[in-house]
Design a protein that fits this description.
Blueprint lengths: L7 H60 L5 H23 L4 H26 L3 H111 L3 E5 L5 E4 L3 H5 L20 H12 L5 E8 L9 E10 L7 E8 L1 H7 L19 H15 L7
Antiparallel strand pairs: 1-2, 1-5, 3-4, 4-5
Helix pairs in contact: 1-2, 1-4, 2-3, 3-4
């Protein structure tokens, strides 16, 4: 029996479940990608805010230095503060390449600083009190303007940063809701499919169990019939006057029916593995081997002869037996030569027969009435006793 096929609805559920699983996996991968992009964006925003804060601090210090400018040492301090502010603005400009508002504010700051640098250069060229009085207000206005622009840029950057955080959190909440909904739908489809497959498996298991029970009942009935048949056969074998033996090609006994004990006095189980020659009269052993040879040359045929056999109680005495040998070596259920023999001593004495042992049958037809039927019965009987099924 082949594997049961899925129904159309089950195949549809499996397809939907596969699509949902792929969608959930894609959403998870996209979440990892978005998370990386968000982290990089927040890092950039943090860096910009830090640079703007540091630049505003340097602008405040520059404005304070310009307000307290005194010649000649105050000019050097102002130029140092201007250098610190310039380096900080360069770092800020590199970090704000994607924000046009900050770029515009930084460009305005650069123009204000250019005017401040020009005033400082003129003051450096003429470091006099009169020139300081003329340049001082200009320097203060430019420094205050730079500080105000940096303060405005910092406020804009902070607003942008907080807005980005809020958008990120909102997108994250939306994605989480979508992922939870998709996962729940996937779980629901999987549950429905599992219940459907379980019902189908339950029905299949019930059918299989019923078949197993039926086969077991049939097997038990067959075994009981076989036991009854074997018991009937064993009863017939024990009560029969005929003896039959199964030997191999060397004449070694592989099976011995219990009927030999009342006929010749030998216990059946003691003869297993013994040579059949030990039961045959010394003068008839050659005749016995001739019968075996003829039987080996004629598979499935039966040969018949008369032999003298020695009783267990008095080996010197002899009894005359009519022996039929059937070659069933090719039959897997037997695999040996079946010997069936009966005591005809009284019949021989009564008829006055004194024929030597020899061949009395042929494989093409029974020499005496009932020989072929007796061969078929021997085949079935040997199969039962050897616990093998008879082959037709």
């Amino acid at each position: 029996m082949g594997r049961p096929r899925l129904s159309r609805s089950q195949r549809l559920l499996m397809a939907v479940l596969g699509v949902l699983i792929v969608a959930v996996q894609a959403m998870i991968l996209q979440a990892y990608h978005d998370q990386g992009s968000t982290i990089r964006s927040l890092d950039t925003g943090t860096e910009v805010l830090t640079d703007l804060h540091n630049a505003h601090r340097e602008a405040f210090r520059l404005a304070l230095t310009v307000d307290q400018l005194r010649l000649p040492d105050g000019l050097d301090a102002a130029e140092v503060r201007r250098g610190f502010l310039g380096r900080q603005l360069d770092a800020t400009l590199a970090a704000t390449s994607g924000d046009p508002v900050l770029q515009r504010d930084l460009a305005e700051i650069a123009s204000q600083l250019a005017v401040l640098d020009a005033e400082l250069a003129r003051l450096r060229a003429h470091p006099t009190t009169a020139q300081l009085v003329l340049a001082g207000p200009v320097l203060q206005r430019r420094a205050n303007a730079v500080e105000a622009l940096l303060k405005a840029a910092y406020g804009h950057g902070e607003t942008q940063f907080l807005g980005a955080i809020q958008q990120t959190l909102q997108a994250r909440r939306s994605f989480q809701r979508l992922l939870i909904g998709t996962s729940g739908l996937t779980l629901a489809v999987a549950l429905v499919l599992a219940l459907s497959l379980r019902r189908r498996a339950s029905r299949a298991f019930a059918g299989a169990y019923a078949r197993v029970v039926a086969e077991d009942n049939e097997r038990k009935l067959a075994e009981r019939a076989l036991r009854e048949s074997e018991q009937r056969f064993q009863a017939l074998v024990h009560q029969a006057s005929d003896v039959f033996t199964v030997v191999d090609t060397d004449g070694r006994i592989r099976y011995q029916s219990p009927a030999i004990e009342p006929v010749l006095g030998y216990p059946a189980d003691h003869l297993l593995g013994a040579e059949m020659d030990s039961l045959v009269h010394t003068d008839d052993q050659q005749a016995f081997h001739d019968l075996l040879g003829k039987s080996l040359a004629r598979p499935s045929a039966s040969v018949v002869g008369e032999l003298r056999m020695r009783p267990h109680a008095d080996p010197q005495a002899s009894r005359r037996f009519e022996m039929t040998i059937t070659n069933l070596l090719h039959d897997q259920t037997v695999g040996g030569l079946v010997l069936n023999y009966r005591d005809i001593t009284e019949r021989a004495l009564y008829t006055g027969a004194a024929h030597p042992a020899g061949l009395r049958g042929s494989p093409h037809g029974p020499a005496q009435p009932g020989a072929a039927g007796r061969a078929a019965g021997l085949r079935a009987g040997a199969a039962r006793v050897l616990d093998r099924p008879a082959l037709c």
